[in-house]
Amino acid sequence: YAIAHPKIPFPNVLSRRCWLFGFLQIVYVCLSCGLQSGQGIGRPSVSHAVVVIFLEFFAWGLLTTPMLTVLHETFPQHTFLMNGLIQGVKGLLSFMSAPLIGALSDVWGRRSFLLVTVFFTCAPIPLMRLSPWWYFAAISMSGAFSVTFSVIFAYVADVTEEHERSTAYGLVSATFAASLVTSPAIGAYLSACYGDNLVVLVATLVALADICFILLAVPESLPEKMRLNTWGAPISWEQADPFQSMRKVGKDPTVLLICITVFLSYLPEAGQYSSFFLYLRQVINFSSATIAVFIGVVGILSIIAQTLILTVLMRTIGNKNTVLLGLGFQILQLAWYGFGSEPWMMWAAGAVAAMSSITFPAVSALVSHSADPDKQGLVQGMITGIRGLCNGLGPALYGLIFYMFNVEGCVFIICLSTQKSLIPGPPFLLGSCTVVVAFLVALFIPEHTETPVVACADSKETSMLAGVHINTPLPGSDEDTPAPTSDEDFEPLLQDSVV
After folding, report:
1. 254 and 124 in a common domain
2. pLDDT tens digits for 66-116?
3. Kindly report the CA angle at 140 between 114 and 494, in degrees rounded to 5?
4. Per-residue confidence (pLDDT) for residue 459, from 0 to 100
5. Residues 208, 285: one domain?
6. How confident is the model at residue 489, as a pLDDT?
7. Cβ neighbourhood burial of 308 (10 Å; 0-12, 13-18, 19+)
8. % helix, strand, coil for the chain, step of 5
9. For 15-26, what is each residue's pLDDT tens digit?
10. Which residues contact 368 (CB under 8 A, 6 or more apart)?
């Protein structure tokens, strides 16, 4: 209440530290009591997973507008560079820690790691108004635990049958999309009417509600027999090695071509996600409300593209041509972002960006059709491992390019008459060039392969890597079993083009 009402005497640093210390004490007591006595409400179900995902990303979506403001106020000279470094460190830590958390979740249970990942992912939220420097430092370090999405998918796999899993994963993904489509607009409205302090307070309360829900309502999904059998079992480095599955990339030409395509296309996409809304605010001069509407519109169009349009394309032109079409839309989108300097150009490019979102589902389907059933985990793990690596490299690369070309100062290819940059977004233009190379590589990917992909790989080495917020099961989870004829290595969300 004091944070949301700055007129109340709350001026000195000591008061803020006392408030923060008391807040942490309350959280500690709740965590201790909940872990010791809480067994959840009812039987574990997909509904529990849906609520957890919605609350977490709703809380962060509310902060879209305040975060852009605080980022610019904290780093006025190097806003894009610092944003890229912060998001890059977070992405790399997520990539490195995801396999270890996956292996440990098989030993200690899903509920404990749901609590840990949600708590540490949301911990930076109240620091936004207390200390911006600590806030951005906490965001970077929280990457080590920002794998809630992967733990959720392992939880869903525990509580559903194989024929139900595809629908359940689709429901979780739709909930995630709905939270990010609605929350930025709500946050922008609250910020405009009542100020950023209230938005931070509401986001903090939503995050606390998520933590309390896990403590009090979410039951453990991993059967007790499995936990007892694995308790105390050593965790090998192979299970915790994030590069384990990617070492097999060069063993098959088809997989090699697909992995190169994914790397060259997703690297600029990851960088775009980390900096685009800041770019709209600082360079294109979008208002907070306009950015919120932009997120909602592009999000809805992306959902339509990945469901209805993707299904039609896959049935009519095939997997490979769908991948090529998606890459073509991505080239056009990034080039438009790079050269566009007017608001209407951003809106048009946003519609094209929604169409480019069909690329990765089409790539996943292409991989699944090219691999044997007992190699699905291996080849999908290669793809998602590369995406996880891009989540760390892409933001840092974009931030560095923005800094090198001094986008804030607009000194890159200046028009002398209008003092306006001919290329407002150099990183987007360079990203478009990398996707052109990805398009050329994808031309050589065979539509179908007669020989099994990665047939020489040992069936026991089917552990999957999970990047931050990537829809794949965790390595070491019960879906990642070594049985060569088991269907548990399938990722139904990546197999079902309708979802």
Report:
1. no
2. 888 888 888 888 888 888 899 889 888 888 887 778 777 777 788 888 999
3. 50
4. 37
5. no
6. 45
7. exposed
8. 75, 0, 25
9. 555 555 555 555
10. 376, 379, 380, 494, 495
Residues 194 and 279 occupy one common structural domain: no
Residue 485 lies inside a defined structural domain of this protein: no
Largest interatomic CA distance in the chain: 74
Q: Is the dihedral of CA 476, 481, 482, 485 positive or negative?
A: negative
Question: Tell me: the pLDDT tens digits for 281-298?
Answer: 888 889 888 998 998 898
Do 344 and 203 share a domain, yes or no?
A: no
**pLDDT tens digits along 448-495:** 544 444 443 343 333 333 333 333 344 444 444 444 444 444 444 444
CA distance 98 to 94: 6
Instruction: Answer yes or no: do 184 and 45 share one domain.
Output: yes
Expressed as residue numbers, the domain containing 270 is: 245-462
- Which CATH number is 430's domain given? 1.20.1250.20
Query: Packing angle between helix 253-282 and helix 288-304, nearest 10 degrees?
Result: 150
The DSSP letter of residue 371 is S
Q: Does residue 137 sit within a domain? A: yes
- Alpha carbon 279 to its chain centroid, in Å, reads 19
Residue 267 lies in a domain: yes
Give yes or no: residues 146 and 285 share one domain: no
3-state SS, residue 221 = coil
